[in-house]
Design a protein that fits this description.
Distance between the termini: 15 Å
Bound molecules: 1,3-dihydroxyacetonephosphate
Oligomer: single chain
Number of strands: 8
Helix content: 40-55%
Order of helices and strands: EHEHEHEHHEHHHEHHEHEH
Low-confidence stretches: none
CATH architecture: Alpha-Beta Barrel
Radius of gyration: 17 Å
């Protein structure tokens, strides 16, 4: 069946020394993941190589990046391409995070290009979607998320979709301490799965891992992960604290 994944999105945090310490603390706990469970650590770019060397011998632990360029290569100062990420051993790349959409003007169309380049270079995109508070208040979150999926993912073949993970991150729950209730998360995850089923068929939908993100922490992870359509989490703040991240991983069951 589909994979259960806990992914840590470190965002723009930690020095190299702190990053090494965090990874070592997590690995030294000696967690044994069950079949079909994966952990991803999405570090800042400068730490990827080091993180790879630390993670590479631990089964089930994968390396993620937090972004990749929408162009293949060339004169794009400051950008990092999917090919570069692949060449340093990155497995997953977070694309379409709401912070990238808001502060760096990433559109659904730009994200479609990034998804294509990631897949072409053997990276698995963790594609983020999710609505702002005003959309939730207007109760139009389903339409909003459906459009994000349609414009960034639906050009993919069913075969390509196999390598895509979806993360639902309601913007009003990110870094706010305000978590979507388990019922709100389940409703949206079931809706996303139904959308995928309508486009790609039931089998493809059942195979797609859909993660929840937004103030997930040890105290609420169990209830969220128990929802039938929640296949794990994309964790921000709590992924920077080894004990919290480990506790969340253990809630995968
Ligand atoms: P927090 O867990 O800090 O709310 O962040 C969620 C997130 O944005 C993960 O990508």
């Amino acid at each position: 069946m589909r994979k259960k994944i806990v992914a840590g999105n470190w965002k723009m945090n930690l020095t190299l020394g702190q990053a090494e310490q965090l990874i070592n603390d997590i690995l030294q706990a000696g967690l044994r993941l069950k079949d079909g469970q994966e952990v991803v650590m999405a570090t800042p770019f400068p730490y990827l190589l080091k993180a790879k060397s630390l993670l590479k011998n631990t089964p089930g632990f994968y390396l993620g990046a937090q972004n990749s360029a929408s162009e293949k290569s060339g004169a794009y100062t400051g950008e990092v391409s999917a090919e570069m990420l692949q060449s340093v051993g990155v497995d997953y790349v977070i694309l379409g995070h709401s912070e990238r959409r808001e502060y760096f003007q990433e559109s659904n169309a730009t994200l479609a290009k990034k998804i294509d380049l990631a897949l072409a270079n053997g990276l698995k995109p963790i594609f983020c979607c999710g609505e702002p508070l005003e959309v939730r208040k207007a109760e139009t979150q389903n339409e909003y998320v459906a459009k994000q999926l349609e414009e960034s993912l639906y050009h993919l073949t069913e075969e390509q979709l196999k390598n895509v993970v979806i993360a639902y991150e309601p913007i009003w729950a990110i870094g706010t301490g305000l978590t979507a209730s388990a019922a709100q998360a389940q409703d949206m995850h079931a809706f996303i799965r139904a959308q995928i089923a309508a486009k790609y068929g039931r089998e493809a939908a059942l195979r797609t891992s859909i993660l929840y993100g937004g103030s997930a922490k040890p105290s609420n992870a169990e209830e969220l992960f128990a929802c039938p359509d929640v296949d794990g989490g994309l964790i921000g703040g709590a992924s920077l604290v080894a004990a919290d991240f480990l506790a969340i991983i253990q809630k995968l069951g």
